[in-house]
Amino acid sequence: MTGKIIAILLAVVTVVAALGLYYLQVYYFYERVSPRGFALQTEAGEIPAKATNIEAIDANSSPIRFRACFDTPLTPDVDAVPYEGAVPLNAPFWFDCFDAEEIGVALASAQAQAFLAEKNIEFGVDRVVAILPGGRGYVWHQLNNCGERAYDGTQIGEDCPPREDQ
């Protein structure tokens, strides 16, 4: 009889822990934010993205959790610094304006273009802006070469900026 009680108790604790972990990852750390707008880097400086209808989320728990959606009069052929290797990261399902799969398909088919918005917004993390035809824009943070090397344990090269935490 005590074995059944222990097994049931263990199962209940496991389910509660799993639900708690799910809640923390999908809801708790995220909050809606109101960014002031976005700028795209050009060879001569930067140009504002003229963003309207901005919806954005962020979390203090990780520098790559930022996501945003906006409308803009800019088109994918804007003269800005392209971002090579842009891969949109998934957003929580409840942030339904940001569909990473749809953005990724548009980037892969060259319907959309990704641009550098800000280099090293935090060490090893770039802000990327993608603009689709029709004036829909998306923003996310993505690990750059320095960030990938720092987080996988590879030696960081001299081409990387100094880390603030060292």
UniProtKB/TrEMBL annotation:
Keywords: Membrane, Transmembrane, Transmembrane helix. The chain crosses the membrane at residues 6-30. InterPro entries: DUF6446 (IPR045616). It comes from the Bacteria. This is Histidine kinase. It comes from Palleronia marisminoris.
